[in-house]
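Record type: monomer structure entry
Structure origin: computed from sequence
Chain ID: A
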Amino acid sequence: MAELNENVGNTLVVRKSCYGLPTGCPHCLSAYFYLKFAQVPFDLAFHLNYPDSDQIPYFEAGNYVAYNNEKDGLIERLKKDFADLDTEVSSVPEWSSTKAALTAWLADALSYELFVGCDGISAYNIYYSDLPRPMGKILYLNQVNSVKQKHGIAIDNAEFKEEEIYSRANSAYEYLSTQLGGQNYLLENRPSSLDATFLAHALIVLQALPETSILRSKLLQHDNILRYVQKHKGDLIDAGTASTFVPHHMNASSSAGVLQVGVPSPRASRKEREQRKEKPLDKGPSVLW
């Protein structure tokens, strides 16, 4: 196991800060929370030149470097080399189902919303806004196609696939809400990598996705999850300053430490979108940049 040298700075390199979060990238924010839970001191640095790189996030400590594209990802390397928060909880019966809900169903739903289900603005601000527009748009459209291919989305099945993704996400939220109950952590009331993953997911859904987001509307139905997110956001991001609930979607450039839980304007089905003359899902999201 690697040793931390207090005389050598530790740095977590992430995609840029946006939507009032230390970073808008789900993997980066998960790593941020994991290090905070593990009480590993670190500075935060932003990698702007290659925002599409699968090496991001990565962690530097002296001559030590761990990248996210290494086997099993950055958090697994941090667990192995610095601090393993999961040793006391990975053997409980609920571990596997909780991990599957987070890393499969909810991860898929968030990726779908960022690149297919919404207008593309959130994904652009998180991943591509520092690149020249032609390059950023090409990378974005490549990721749109990648998400569609992963889920087998085509013109003739787009509505069915969307309903399937959101149904699974809704089931995942219900399961996690039940699992959480009134505790401060998902399992055994102690922090784990699953809490880091869930907090990152929930904060991006609440703060980066538009109010019309279906995923956001489903998450807002669970008061205990909102309490859980608000508590840890206050402890780990706001550093003791008061967090405020505000009823609107935050601009990407905003740096205010607030968690939005306003009532969304539901966008419950493709049929409703078409009735409002929105662009149909099978033609891809409407990129406004």
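Annotation 1: Residues 68 and 74 are 4 Å apart (CA to CA).
Annotation 2: The longest strand covers residues 10-14.
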